[in-house]
UniProtKB/TrEMBL annotation:
Name of the protein in question: Zinc transporter ZupT
GO cellular component: membrane
Protein's cellular compartments: Membrane
Principal location listed in the UniProt entry: membrane
Entry keyword annotation includes Transmembrane helix: yes
GO MF term set: metal ion transmembrane transporter activity
Membrane topology per record: Multi-pass membrane protein
InterPro entries: ZIP
Superkingdom, natural source: Bacteria
Keywords assigned: Membrane, Transmembrane, Transmembrane helix
Length: 259
């Protein structure tokens, strides 16, 4: 099989398995579990960023300073985008009633969080497709190992993303549809990379950095503050344990596939 066919097959398999994993989480998780399982999602997001995505970005020819600066700029961009969404939300209501409106909606899930996760995950999956294609172009066996490694670390991350989508207020069918959209980005990235690999390679570290920025922002700015609403010792310990489990699942997926 040609590198293009191998890359397309790997992209389809990765997308289908990710979607099945997300569907399992979306349709089996009870509503009462979601606030606690968001802790796992935080760990999975941060684990994917600091154990997988950024190390890949730093291994490319781009300087660490340039990659780090892209992460910083990305976080600021997502901050401004969120501000714009909030500004638009505020200005469709009567300013005189804003304070009461804000208080009434203080504990509602924020749909923008789910949308930002989809954007970040789509960029990440697109870059995964580029990495798979680059490996298959170099060597078929290397491509297979790379594809397996990417699929292995995608599964726990997709489970975490699915929980974030539910937490953001999306219905189950809509959350699954968004997950399918982001999962198919792997196939798109693989096809485009095979057709224009040389011109895309130099952008890989910066795309990875932007994906990292979106995931860091969602975890730190949108999800972690919600955990502080309950400060009792039992809940705090459970939250910390699930965050660690999310990070560990990314690590184990990486280690197991390499060993």
């Amino acid at each position: 099989m040609t590198p293009l066919m191998n890359s397309m097959l790997a992209g389809v398999v990765a997308g289908v398995l990710s979607m099945l994993c997300a569907a399992l989480v979306i349709y089996t998780a009870r509503p009462a579990w979601v606030p606690l399982l968001v802790s796992y999602a935080i760990g999975a997001l941060l684990g994917a960023v600091f154990l997988e995505i950024l190390p890949h970005a730093f291994h490319h020819e781009a300087s660490p300073e340039a990659v780090s600066a892209t992460v910083l700029v990305g976080i600021l961009i997502f901050f401004l985008l969120e501000k714009l969404v909030l500004w638009r939300h505020v200005h469709v209501h009567d300013v005189a009633g804003l304070e009461a409106h804000a208080h009434a909606h203080a504990h509602e899930p924020q749909g923008r969080t789910g949308a930002m996760v989809v954007v970040g995950d789509s960029v990440h999956n697109f870059v995964d497709g580029i990495i798979i294609a680059a490996a298959f172009v170099s060597d078929t066996r290397l491509g297979m190992v790379t594809a397996l490694a990417i699929i292995a670390h995608e599964l726990p991350q997709e489970a975490g993303d699915a929980l974030v989508l539910l937490h953001s207020g999306m219905s189950r069918p809509r959350a699954l549809a968004f997950n399918l959209f982001s999962s198919m980005a792997t196939l798109v990235g693989a096809v485009i990379a095979c057709l224009a690999l040389q011109s895309l390679q130099k952008w890989v570290p910066y795309l990875l950095a932007l994906a990292s920025a979106s995931m860091i922002y969602v975890a730190v700015a949108d999800l972690i503050p919600g955990l502080h609403r309950r400060v009792d010792l039992r809940t705090s310990a459970l939250q910390m344990g699930l965050i660690v489990l999310g990070v560990a699942s990314i690590h184990w997926a990486h280690v197991l596939i390499l060993e």
